[in-house]
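Continuing from the previous page...

OK, I double-checked the sequence for ZFY21 protein against my notes and this is the correct one:
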Amino acid sequence: CPRCMQCDTKFDFITRKHHCRRCGKCFCDKCCSKKVPLPRMCFVDPVRQCAECALISQKETEFYDKQLKVLMNGATFFVTLGTSDKSELMVCRLSSNQRYLVLDGDSHYEIEIIQISTVQILTEGFTPGGGNSRAIGMILQYKVPGSEELTQMKFTASEDFSCNKKLSASWLAAMHKATKLLYESRDQ
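Thanks. Re-ran it with the corrected sequence; updated structure tokens here:
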């Protein structure tokens, strides 16, 4: 490539070309000067990345360091399947191989992460002035293998256990960050 893919500067003897170690595109030094850890691609030391990739890599690192542990530990929710009025108290967690959302209660479900099409976090407490809201639940839509139809599950944080309510809110916040990160990674 003869020019920087960000600022269109022409490469020559003085302006050298650099490759982003995440996306592989060619950039000048100014557009690809950030060195950020990239452990998911097995780099031991921080590597050169463009600004866009560096931001995503930083978010990924934060996710793996913080939110992943919360998701794998799990939290308790009332889970309603489809349009049913009946809900079941279940522990929801991410599987150890990070490929399934596992729900355990009287029933048992394993939802493959790749089959999840939408995640909507339900909140309360939003004020018009921009005050903080808190997560109280989530609606998840996914495809059951062998079917083209979407199945919906609604997760609601339990009001009965005050200590579990905080854990559930943390789990929902981690799930929200995970889905944002997933969609950003897919877009690249």
